[in-house]
Fold this protein.
Amino acid sequence: MDGVTLTPLKRIHNPKGDIFHAMKRSDAGFDEFGEAYFSTVHKGDIKGWKKHTKMTLNIVVPIGEIEFVIYNEDTKDFFSLKLSNNNYQRMTIKPNLWMAFRGIAKNNMLLNLASLEHDPSESIDCDLEKIKYEW
């Protein structure tokens, strides 16, 4: 989908605990740095729909498995992807796309490396029922 980029990431095995790469300044998809935050989602729960009007998201799932659905309001297209330890990639999402996500595993956590600091006036939320998607 236009506005969504997937970047394979390194996971380095270490007998005392693995190292999960997330993002470097030199990586494709890096816009600028605003803030980093973690978000959890319980198994079966869905968070969304949300559309950022200026922020670029860079999402990584180091724990669990999360299904992401991106919706382009202009083309009426959906893009879905499950990110996890087994599918360890960074998903870059440009502004003006709707996103929702659902927890698949028992424990799920994502990291967002956002291009801007949180600003509630920069994003739009809508109820899950407003954008029809078969979860």
About this structure: The CA atoms of residues 68 and 101 lie 4 Å apart. The first strand starts at residue 4 and ends at 8. The chain has one domain: 4-130. The two ends are 19 Å apart (CA to CA).
